[in-house]
Design a protein that fits this description.
alpha+beta, binds zinc ion, single chain, globular, eight-stranded mixed β-sheet
Length: about 325
């Protein structure tokens, strides 16, 4: 089975607005400024806990001027961050003031505070008693007792199943392949769990198909311990009929990409080597780190990428 959620990657618009929301409002730490492997003139920003631990990472490709995406089937509908018990009143007030679209909802008997990020992506906050592993970021504008700890859950809205081998749905892939267990079911929502991570699957056949662009999730990644486990997964996925990428070196982890039966792009990512491979914990995310394959373009990229003002980081 996978260990849990590793990271979520979304497509975004303006990079500064993106930083202002995820660092300035949500209080996450910008733990890596790097660029998109496929288009290095676009940032790849990583937000997370104090040391950028797997499971806490929200990442974005802020393309600047880009058409808004459309929410719907075949994509991730929401990302839920866990916050400490007793912190939701703080968040409801903060998001009510700082964000133009926010509100509250009860999902499976639990209060959830939600907000749309600057591009319309839905993020949710939920109180969780037993915290996931995380390291606080002491320069956050959010006081420690209220701080976001990790990504608790993603909510998927699959398209109608396109069978892959013997897996005819997202649910079948989650339980039969990735090791998730069904823990709750109500109305059109089912909840699955592995480790401390959860995946909700929402059945919404009336929804239109999603269009992947600003404000939508590009892919979700699940954790594998190391390269050896990764190799086994690659064989298993291929044997079960999944079309996968080869194992790709993403500098901070190794990745395998594949589409699940509901049309959503999944990634498996290793815990190692992690965010601390090229920066100290003290200075994480403060300078542009260009991937090995694009390092010869570092000077050019530093000139063309917009300068970012990172809340909490003085230079
Ligand atoms: Zn990824």
């Amino acid at each position: 089975m996978v260990l849990g959620i590793h990271h979520v990657t979304a497509i975004s618009g303006d990079p500064q607005q993106n930083v202002d929301f995820y660092v300035g409002v949500l209080g996450l730490r910008l733990v890596k400024q790097t660029v998109n492997f496929d288009d290095p003139t676009v940032y790849h920003l990583y937000y997370g806990d104090g040391i950028g631990r797997p499971g806490t990472l929200m990442t974005t490709f802020p393309y600047g001027h880009i058409l808004p995406g459309k929410r719907g089937r075949g994509e991730t509908a929401a990302i839920t961050f866990e916050v400490p018990t007793g912190s939701l009143d703080f968040w409801a007030t903060r998001l009510g003031i700082e964000v133009s679209h926010s509100g509250e909802e009860v999902i499976f008997d639990k209060r959830v505070v939600w907000a749309l990020d600057p591009d319309g992506l839905r993020v949710e906050l939920e109180e969780v008693e037993t915290p996931a592993e995380y390291t606080e970021w002491t320069q956050s504008s959010v006081p420690t007792q209220f701080a976001i700890r990790a990504i608790r859950r993603i909510s998927l809205m699959p398209a109608r199943g396109r069978s892959i081998g013997s897996f005819d749905s997202t649910e079948a892939a989650l339980t039969g392949m990735l090791g998730f267990e069904l823990t709750r079911e109500e109305g059109n929502r089912k909840r699955f769990k592995v480790g401390v991570s959860e995946v909700d699957v929402i059945d919404a056949p009336e929804e239109p198909m999603a269009r992947n662009s600003a404000g939508t999730v590009h892919h979700v990644a699940f954790r594998n311990e190391n390269d050896e486990v990764h190799e086994k997964w690659l064989m298993d996925l291929n044997r079960n009929g999944f079309h996968t990428s080869p194992i790709m070196d993403r500098d901070y982890f190794r990745s395998i990409y594949f589409r699940e039966p509901g049309g959503i792009l999944f990634e498996f990512a290793t815990d190692q080597p992690g965010m601390l491979i090229d920066e100290t914990a003290e200075h994480l995310g403060e300078a542009l780190r260009v991937p090995k394959m694009h390092v010869h373009r570092q000077d050019h990229l530093e000139r063309v990428l917009p300068k970012l003002n990172i809340p909490g980081v003085t230079r």
